[in-house]
């Protein structure tokens, strides 16, 4: 039954009720009231069941989002390992070229020594012994020939060992790079599968949320009808004059957050090492984007006012710590999705929620500007972005009073 239809019925009845038997009208309205009350009770039961279904779906979504965060963190670590490995390959290549150049120079010097040896009339050890020269001279020349032979043999062996070692390092490094690529492909496949799973569960959650919103709206409408009927029945009982119909007051909506406020200045390492208490008016935002909800503003849903900022940002964009501190929480939390909290000392905390991935774990020290997470829409959030709070001694305060105007 629509509200306008109900009001029209009441208006017609009120204009004519003086000519009706009061008892009959009262019975009709009481029956209608009881019918509405029964319908409200039934809808409340359905709403409770829908809320339970939504809670179960949210639990499933939690596990999926946790796994996605872990896989993405693993992918990031693999990319960093691959970068280090490529740098190592470059270093090894340079070392190989340097060693080969040095070996060629040594062989050139050795060849020169050999030419000098053979240029001396082709003398060898046997001829020297048979030459009848001074024994001391004979001993010196034999020792010289032996030294040249040993030096040449040692140089050749050292050069061969160096080349073998470099070749082995290249093979091992290439094998490790292929292994890492294989693992990265496997993890990427897992991430894609998990994203699909998350999409399916998110769809279920959206449908349940829509059903709950509709049920709550219908219950609210029926409760308003019930209230109006109760007043009308009381009027009939007292046989007072027909009161004039009033249009139902429209529900007051909260002020919509200001849109279009662009965030360009993002936290960097310039504030690293400074005490948080000295950063008032100097902080930068944790992510670049658009502020669509500010501290203290009412929510469209009619829930509690915003206790921080919601910054609309691109999915996967890096989230940076606004100041140095220690990560004290890094996990999934209902209503916040993948949440990371940094303790900056002095009772000050910064909160970063609805992240796609968490890069840092609890107990990790971070510096101002460090990437700690990536933007997402976890925790049932409909829009991609970052929810950011600042707290002191557990109580939230307006982050805009601490950020720089630059």
Average pLDDT number: 72
The CATH top-level class label of the largest domain: Mainly Alpha
Q: Assign an overall shape.
A: elongated
Main β sheet profile? 11 strands, antiparallel
Strand content: 15-25%
Query: How many distinct helices?
Result: 4
Which structural class is indicated by helix and strand composition? alpha+beta
CATH structural architecture of the largest domain: Orthogonal Bundle
Radius of gyration: 40 Å
CATH topology of the largest domain: Helix Hairpins
Q: What is the number of independent domains?
A: 2
Cα distance spanning the termini: 56 Å
Q: How are helices and strands ordered from N to C?
A: HHHHEEEEEEEEEEE
- Report the helical percentage: 40-55%
Low-confidence stretches: 1-5, 14-22, 239-259
Q: In words, what does this structure look like?
A:
By secondary structure, the protein is α+β, with helices and mostly antiparallel strands. The protein has 2 domains: 250 residues, Helix Hairpins, CATH 1.10.287; 141 residues, Glucose Permease (Domain IIA). Helix content is 55%, strand content 15%. Strands 1, 2, 3, 4, 5, 6, 7, 8, 9, 10 and 11 form an 11-stranded antiparallel beta sheet that branches. Strand 6 and strand 7 form a beta hairpin. The chain is elongated and about 140 Å long.
